[in-house]
Amino acid sequence: MSKQSQQPQSIFNAALLKGALRDSLKKLDPRTLWRNPVMFCVEIASGITLVTFVMSLTGANREPAWFTGTVSVWLWLTVTFSTFAEALAEGRGKARAASLRKSRTYVTAKRLDKAEFGQNYTTVGASQLRKGDLILVEANDMIAGDGDVVAGAALINESAVTGESAPVIRESGGDRSAVTGGTTVIANSIIVRITANPGETFLDRMISLIEGAKRRKTPNEVALEVLLIALTLVFLLVCANISPLSIYSVKQAGHGTPVSLTILVALFVCLAPTTIAALLPAIGIAGMDRLFQKNVIALSGRAIEAAGDVNVLLLDKTGTITHGNRQAVTFVAVGGHSERDVAEAALMASIADETPEGRSVVVLAKEQHGLVRETPQDAEVMEFSADTRLSGINLAGNQYRKGASDSIIAFVRKRGCTTVPGDLTEVVDRIARGGATPLVVCKGSEILGVINLKDIVKAGIQERFLQLRSMGIKTVMITGDNPLTAAAIAAEAQVDDFLAQAKPEEKLRLIREYQEQGYMVAMTGDGTNDAPALAQADVAVAMNTGTQPAREAANIIDLDSNPTKLLDIVEVGKQILMTRGNLTTFSISNDIAKYFAIIPAALLSIYPQLGVLNVMRLASPFSAILSAVIFNAIIIPMLVPLALKGTRFRPMPAEKLLIHNLLIYGVGGIIAPFVGIKIIDMVIGMVV
To answer: What stretches pass through the bilayer (predicted)?
Structure first.
């Protein structure tokens, strides 16, 4: 089984850089840039300095033309670096979307009137299909649109969507009935009911989301943007008041020159939170891109953001905590019956059961007792359901069932059983305490014995749960097993809590209880019965192999259909929040050094005493201002790789993580500009 994983594209890719540069120049259009108010103000400031440069060339401005011109160039570069960061993040998504578009070809479909094999069909183009249409898909046919299998079963190649080269089975009547347009049937035939109109298919949504065309700002982004706008307005008022203050001071002191417009503009741009304002869009876009690298599609930025705030995880036991391929290992007789009696009844109850557990029962009956049977033509098959929690067949007046202990006891009592075998409870408890699943077997109103189904906890899952616990995240295992089995598996896996014998309404109730207590809840699911809980959860991860209702209820789709991916999604969500917080801290800390560079330089001719604040010993007022402007510009492209890659995720308590990041990005944000501005000043001193 091979997998074509989504490889992260290097930001140093020549074609990517060229496209990003072209798009960044387009984003300088004020009609586009106004959506980023801070950088829009910087663009206006850049235009003002361009005018002062022209005035300097004509002699209408007393400042040196080289100074005003250089300041203007670097302010324009500041805006361009900002749009370049966003364009680069979007470019990586557009490259992936382009590769998906290339995989799309013109597809025809065999439209049917009824969901029956063998009838005539009409050949139509995929664009003519509408929600509710029925189509026949045979071997080597490409599925023309998203839908649910309503008849038949087939082997399907989904590599065009998931990257997974191993084919998968899709069949009607179960939780693996959903199919995706653009995938190909390898063997057998199926009838599919279309569930999406053209332009609304999963592949269309993938392309749109990857490109970022429909990306909306998350609540945290909006809140941070409001803060940045408020800070920008404060600095704008401060700078606007410095000019009349300097004019008044010159008149009173009788010496010095008022602060020029170019210096005021430079001061405003350096003090405004330009660094985080420039990188904020790129952080959000890159976060969705990192999820796509893990074969996860987030249907909204809000979902990723919520994943970063999750403090309760609801995880299915089967396939997430355990391997999910439970196997029958023994038959245990009760009530004086023989083990062969149990094997025969278990074989009959499982003969039409195509689940791995059901097939393992058939194999065990053959290996241990030589029992072999085919499904009788006149047998009535009783499928397993979450409500009854049992399955089997009705044949020749006999009812063979296997299922949970309480369900089987209720079943036989309805059929006249008055006495349950005395050793049944002891056998069921013993198997359950060992972490296995006991399935009780009956024939009619008589309980014969128990099947021991063994499942294995995944290696390393305990360490993942310990990491989550260290981050303050509570893990809750959800299972249909009885409480004893659930308790044994929960103890072995080291989860914090569990919900046994879980039904859809109980999952929904549990989520609501946690939410009422103020928790952010995440869960995974793939079945129709998971849809209500997925719709209620703050972060709902649906398996791509799941049913259409589950996928529609979710806000995140896992293309690999790997339930453990929820842990990775939480890590990416926290990484996005950390990156945004760290770069905000760094951006605001940067301003401290700029105070010591620009303010003394701007007012030194009026207040010579301010020379004591020139702690960096910058060469001249012009050099100091220019050094601060250049540093303010070049720090943006230097931080672009960090914004796109994200800060390193460290599983630790929130208070320790806060202290750690404050030391690195807070203290680092204070120190770095002092060093950078001084180095730039020294270079300017050698050139000018």
So the answer is: 37-59, 65-89, 222-243, 263-286, 592-610, 622-642, 662-687
Q: Are 42 and 78 in contact (CB under 8 A)?
A: yes
Tens of pLDDT, residues 319-340: 667 766 678 889 999 988 999 9
The Cα–Cα gap between 167 and 186 comes to 8
Token duo for residue 575: 């990484």
List residues forming the annotated binding site: 353, 357, 384-391, 402, 526, 530
Domain locations in the chain as residue ranges: 3-94+212-292+571-687, 110-141+147-195, 310-321+458-568, 326-457
What's the pLDDT band for 10 if we cut at 50, 70, 90?
low
CATH 2.70.150.10 fits 110-141+147-195, yes or no: yes
Locus of tokens 């002699």:
59
Active-site hit among 141, 148, 316, 341: 316
Most confident residue range from 200-214, 238-252, 539-553: 238-252
110-141+147-195 with 310-321+458-568: one CATH topology?
A: no
Q: Which residues are annotated as a binding site for ATP?
A: 353, 357, 384-391, 402
Cβ atoms of residues 595 and 39 within 8 Å: no
Binding residue positions for Mg(2+):
526, 530
Token pair recorded at residue 364:
């065990």
313 contacts 229 by C-beta, under 8 angstroms: no
> How far are the Cα atoms of 284, 299, 423 from residue 212, in angstroms, in the given order?
10, 11, 62
Give percent above pLDDT 90 in the chain. Answer: 14
Q: Select the more confidently predicted residue: 405 or 5.
A: 405
Burial class (CB in 10 A: 0-12, 13-18, 19+), 669: buried
Could you tell me the pLDDT band of residue 3, with boundaries at 50, 70 and 90? very low
CB atoms within 10 A of CB 113: 11
The distance from CA 684 to its chain's CA centroid, rounded to whole angstroms, is 46
CA angle 24, 25, 26 (to 5 degrees): 90
Residue 41 has pLDDT above 80, yes or no: yes
CATH number of 310-321+458-568: 3.40.50.1000
Are 390 and 443 contacting, i.e. CB atoms less than 8 angstroms apart?
Answer: no
Q: What's the distance, CA 133 to chain centroid?
A: 32
pLDDT of res. 4: 43
In the residue annotation, 316 being an active-site residue is answered as yes
Q: Is 534 exposed, middle or buried (0-12, 13-18, 19+ CB in 10 A)?
A: buried
CA distance 671 to 594: 11
DSSP string, 368-431: HH----PPPTT-EEE---TTT-EEEEEETTEEEEEE-HHHHHHHHHHTT-----TTHHHHHHHH
The pLDDT of residue 161 is above 70: no
Which class in CATH covers the domain with range 326-457?
Answer: alpha beta
Sequence-distant (6+) residues with CB within 8 A of 389 are 403, 404, 407, 480, 501
Ranges assigned E (strand) in 218-377: 296-298, 312-316, 327-333
pLDDT at 8 over 60: no
Q: pLDDT of 501-535, one tens digit each?
A: 877 788 888 999 998 998 888 888 777 777 888 88
Identity of the residue numbered 353: D
Cα separation values, 303 from 150, 166, 465, 588, 618, Å: 31, 29, 22, 27, 48
Other CB atoms within a 10 A radius of the CB of residue 327 amount to: 18
What are the helix (H) ranges across 526-620?
531-536, 548-553, 565-603
